[in-house]
Here is the input.
Amino acid sequence: MFESRIASPFAGESDAIASLGPIGRAVLRCREADIGSISDKLGIALPRAACRSESNGPSSALWLGPDEWLLLHADLQDDWVSRLAAHLEGELCSLVDVSHRQVALAVQGARAAEILASGCALDLSPRAFPVGMCTRTMFARAEVVLWRTGSMSFHLDVWRSFARYVEALLREAESEN
Amino acid sequence: MLIIPCPYCGERPELEFSYGGQAHIDRPLAPSDLSDEEWNSYLYVRANPKGRHAERWRHIHGCARFFNAVRDTRTDHILATYKVGEPEPEIPA
Ligand SMILES: [Zn+2]
Here is the structure.
């Protein structure tokens, strides 16, 4: 349903760089002392370790800062964030629906890390950036959230207005041999 | 590019950070009790050492947290980083 209503900003598709379609996103912020009880109510353990993620079925929690997480849901549902908020009734925290602020690309295949390295200064070797690691960082001049979902696959979340810019640079890197 | 160790995230490239000026400057508890000279000093007067300088940085394109760093202004070497609220570490010469 949503697919037909929300225009994708991306220009193309390829094996290595593909749109992940509409997904649910929320930013959760809370105090360290409340991480345990909020995790219980969300049904997902908010990672306490820096730059790590946890997944439970279609839901994932990505550590962005010591009191800040990006919650993702694999398919976009209108009432997902309001249902989360209902679960968190009585907790002192902030939960903001940012589903439409960002769009996501999958960068995948044997050259995934090499393509990303064209615009990202982080060491993307599996030892320095293992599966499950996630972080805000820069891709060229755009801030992104980079999440390694497999040994050769990355999820890249980017603000909607920077999507074409990031995509064009990734495709240029993809075209170089 | 400088590699800066964020106290939360570890070593990260300089382009993820922004600079926040001299560290350990406390806002006066009662600003209206200050003389113009004291207020001027609080707002504008900063150390400008040739050598070690404790300063605020923010990992703005990473964990987004502020932290403090001791940097040698002659070499740009970052000698230590530490969380806000922690004392400036003693570093042997
Ligand atoms: Zn950091």
The mean pLDDT of chain A is 94. Chain A is about 20% helix and 35% strand. Residues B 6, 8-9, 59, 62-63, 65 surround zinc ion (CB under 6 Å). Chain A touches chain B through 13 residues (CB under 8 Å).
